[in-house]
Design a protein that fits this description.
There is one protein chain. This protein is an all-alpha fold and 165 residues long. The chain is 79% helix and 0% strand. The chain has 6 helices and no strands. Helix 2 runs parallel beside helix 6.
Length: 165
């Protein structure tokens, strides 16, 4: 594509970044793909040259989003009584739910499937470890809320990357 102004290039890159950010709804690595696109754009563009500190902030945002998504489920789940076995079940359930839900709702089923899977996986593993149903259900709610917190954090990091560009 041939752009005549720097503004047109930036509008084009913002559209691409927004579309990549939307991949987070499908439990895909949209934030990391945004970093790759920005890096490639930086290499092949003579008008786009962010300082190194800018790159550090973008990569830090990606890492922060991933860490909060990973740790959020664990920390919030612990407050609701989630054990390490239940946490393992919630991660397995979230991945399985995202994969199984992906074909539904134009791909948005992956997001819902990940959340429901985190709940279901945690519930099953907590019950299997000998907890009562009400304790297991409470821990599963914690895993689900933590997963939602993690998704929100990851999406927020992606928005931060878009605004930084």
């Amino acid at each position: 594509m041939d752009f005549t102004t720097k503004g047109e290039k930036m509008i084009f890159i913002k559209i691409i970044l927004f579309l990549l950010w939307c991949l987070n709804f499908f439990s895909l690595p949209g934030n990391w793909l945004m970093v790759v696109v920005l890096f490639l754009f930086d290499i092949f563009s003579t008008t786009f040259s962010p300082p190194i500190s800018w790159w550090a902030v973008v990569i830090l945002l990606c890492i922060l989003g991933e860490v909060i998504e990973f740790v959020g489920q664990f920390v919030v789940g612990k407050k609701y009584g989630l054990t390490s076995k239940g946490n393992l079940g919630s991660f397995i359930g979230a991945i399985t739910g995202a994969i199984l839900g992906a074909p539904f709702l134009l791909g948005l089923g992956a997001l819902i499937g990940g959340i429901v899977g985190a709940y279901a996986g945690s519930l099953v593993f907590e019950l299997a470890s000998g907890k009562s149903f009400s304790e297991s259900k409470q821990a599963a709610y914690g895993a689900m809320f933590g997963k939602i917190l993690g998704i929100v954090a990851k999406m927020s990091a992606g928005i931060g990357i878009i605004f930084l560009t």
